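Support request, please re-run this one:
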Amino acid sequence: MHMEEKNEKRTSIKDNSVRNVVADLFAYVFSTETALVNLYRGLGKEIAVEDIEYISLNDELGRNNRYNDTAFRTKDNRIIVFVEHQSTQNKNMPFRFLEYAVDVMRILKVLSDQNRFGEKLMTFPKLEFYVAYNGEKPLKEENKNLVVDLGDVRVSAQVVDICFDELPKQMAENPNDELAGYSYFVKMFREMKSQGKTPHDAYHDAVGKSKEMGYLAHIWSRKELVDMFLETYCHDEILREEGMEKGLEKGLEISALIFNALKENLPIQAIAEKYGVKSHQVEKMKRDFAI
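Re-run finished. Output below.
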């Protein structure tokens, strides 16, 4: 499967919500072994690209309503690394990682060749959990090392600030570094929105700034990818509009109901009137999700 086909599946409604452009871009950028090596370095660790394998299991994980942003393992299953992008500070991340890890080990059959009922102690992979934080609020010291204590089970996750201004100078000035490119785009995107530009213009201006600096050239040189991430963001804006008018929770619920109504082939105008949204919003959701 080609990478663009694989990652387009992430532009979808799940858990009654729509992922935004920042999260989807993160998952897309870090879906190759080379990019993952750079990300791992940005998290403070080193590993050889020839020793790892990208894990893409969101189709399988999605059946349990779980979606991990990116993960990889060493080819000998010695280490499995999970990375989740976050723009807010969430102390519950270790538990979420634990859910991912159990599912992934089961799906990959990491322990299938060992006898869990025998006397010999099994060999388990080392699990590493990282949160790549790229929020607008400064990362609190207390939130850099997260721990969830379940009694006999203790799960921890390391939170690393990947905001562009926090990256090491050598990394930030390297246009070929995927982490620098991703973080620069997010910085420009937020700056453009803070200047009062429309979301559409802010997105395109951020892409333009990234192109000028040479960041993520392999993505922004392809119009279909630029359009794909813009469509994702537009759907996120539908939720934001509904959230402001009726509360975020109600907005998420309405978006999911619209999606289901489209799948049932109900008339667009009828859907718009029923849920109190504009018909062009419904039409765009139908087109972009190919319903």
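The longest strand covers residues 79-86. The longest helix spans residues 223-246.
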